Amino acid sequence: MKPTDEAVPAFSWDEWYAGVGGRSIDIPEVQDFVKLIHTEQEPRFTAAVAPIVSPFASPSEASEWVKVTAKSLGADLVGVCQIEPSDIYRGREVPERFAIAVGKRMRYGEFQNVPSRRSAIECMRIYHDLGEVVIELANALRARGFACRVEHPLGDSNVLHIPIGLKAGFGELGRHGSIINPELGPLFRMGSVLTSLDLECDKPLDAGIAAFCDSCRACRIYCPADAIPDERSAHAGKDHLGNDRYLIDTGKCFPYFAKHAYCSACLPVCVYNHKEWARDFSGEPTKLFPTIVMHEAPSECDSVPSEHRHQYEHVHRGGPQKPLPRHAVKGDP
Ligand code: SF4
Ligand code: SF4
Q: Which is the closest atom of ligand 1 to the Cα of 254?
């Protein structure tokens, strides 16, 4: 049996949260999932690789096997792409050639009031459940003799999930900075498994979603921190379709996110959830449009250490407070 990858230094979440003004989310069920991830899942990120390889007849057969296996483990989305240097976090090394992107949907019914205890628990539940999928998918590959690396959805990844998901055909980049899938909308999370097994890659999607964002502003209107931009940014790089990207002001989003149940308001308000299926997706009655609790936004905070900082613009700063939109309620002071 040969070992898999070497351990890499962990991302300093405490330092990161301090840099966005401190984290004040205290939800026992969330902490339980975080504990499970650290104590039960992390030790299973690496494992031995079977010494005898069970080869595939072709890259296309290998990709098909990977997708069927991931779906049988509970994945809702699976796609494959080649890893490029721009997909890798600064300071990390990724020798593997391919990323198997895996997505798992979140329950719309848990996002009826946002931010809330329920929505925060659902975010962490899906990180845990998706973690199981990527760990077991990696184990299935190792059992066939192929080394691979687990990229858990709960932070400290070596690769950026969003560009990988876009290349793997998961959907298009929305104004809110998350991928919108034509069927699942943006309410899903991603993890991945990296490998050098020859795989057939998927193609990026062009379903007209990014173009639709140019005329829809629902997420921008309902963002409690006023962090979502009106316009695309010409200097911020392109999305996979060649569009200038929308750049979220993370100096406004992250401080809010760290204090208010991981916020996530931009996801359930996204019009791509407002389909018939969203109403009875998990068998319970849901509102067509969620109620967004507009807590007072903390001051913007830009003191994340530069090695951990995102590139972002300072949008909507210093202007008058925006009026409360419909379907939004004032939060507790
Ligand atoms: S997570 Fe919340 S604060 Fe951040 S962009 Fe989305 S709606 Fe705005
Ligand atoms: S709410 Fe509208 S503008 Fe925002 S990401 Fe969804 S479709 Fe795009």
A: 4
